[in-house]
């Protein structure tokens, strides 16, 4: 109990004047290992620098950041995707980039993604991909603790299809030591936008400067530069789908 109190004090009582931010682990947006890094962290740190606001970042599992953010903790949060289910949980401060959640095959696979009956679909527990997989009819859902496991399972043929965010899948593929060309994009099930969000009780007046800073970062090209540095590919950068005859 004492340890829990100490952890809460560290998280919610940052140094005087510092803003607390929660980074929900979601590579390549927020990486799990210290120090805090990833695309969303880089954007947040750039905004902090421009505002002259000291920032204390705590890296947590993404599900935990959503729980904390919806229970009256005064924190900024990156990088949740804005979905209808999450809409009432947080304040949505400013968009970062769009992301595709899609079905991914091995390159050259002849699996039909319109007839998924009996196929084994790999997802990460409690992820957006996990929620999307529950809508697929007749599939066998294979749950993993992280996307690197799914990359390895797809390569080994232990799952038929991988359901994940495209940038997360690409990052995991590299971390697993597997070639990116092995991944074949399939049906897009959801296109959503990642956000800088905040807990419900964060004062709107205090969020306004962060909104302005994010808009400036976007308009002056810094957002795009950071995305390129972190190898983030947005849907607008992808080639159009091939025409089917």
Automatic annotation (TrEMBL):
<keyword id="KW-0732">Signal</keyword>
<feature type="signal peptide">
    <location>
        <begin position="1"/>
        <end position="18"/>
    </location>
</feature>
<protein>
    <submittedName>
        <fullName>Transporter substrate-binding domain-containing protein</fullName>
    </submittedName>
</protein>
């Amino acid at each position: 109990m004492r340890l829990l109190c100490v952890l809460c004090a560290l998280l919610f009582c940052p140094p005087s004047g510092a803003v607390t931010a929660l980074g929900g682990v979601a590579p390549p947006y927020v990486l799990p290992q210290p120090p805090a890094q990833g695309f969303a962290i880089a954007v947040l740190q750039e905004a902090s620098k421009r505002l002259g606001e000291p920032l204390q970042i705590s890296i947590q599992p993404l599900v935990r950041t959503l729980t904390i953010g919806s229970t009256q903790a005064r924190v900024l949060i990156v990088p949740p995707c804005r979905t209808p289910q999450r809409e009432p949980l947080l304040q949505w401060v400013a968009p970062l980039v769009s992301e595709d959640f899609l079905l991914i095959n091995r390159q050259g696979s002849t699996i039909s993604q319109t007839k998924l009956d009996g196929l084994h679909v790999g997802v990460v527990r409690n992820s957006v991909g996990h929620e999307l997989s529950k809508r697929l009819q007749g599939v066998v859902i294979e749950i993993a603790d992280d996307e690197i496991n799914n990359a390895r399972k797809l390569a080994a043929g232990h799952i038929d299809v991988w359901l994940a965010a495209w940038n997360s899948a690409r990052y995991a593929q590299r971390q697993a030591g597997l070639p990116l060309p092995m991944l074949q994009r399939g049906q897009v099930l959801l296109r959503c936008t990642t956000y800088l969000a905040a807990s419900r009780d964060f004062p709107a007046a205090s969020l306004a400067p962060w909104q302005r800073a994010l808009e400036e970062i976007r308009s002056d090209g810094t957002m795009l530069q950071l995305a390129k540095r972190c190898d983030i590919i947005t849907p607008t950068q992808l080639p159009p789908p091939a025409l089917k005859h």
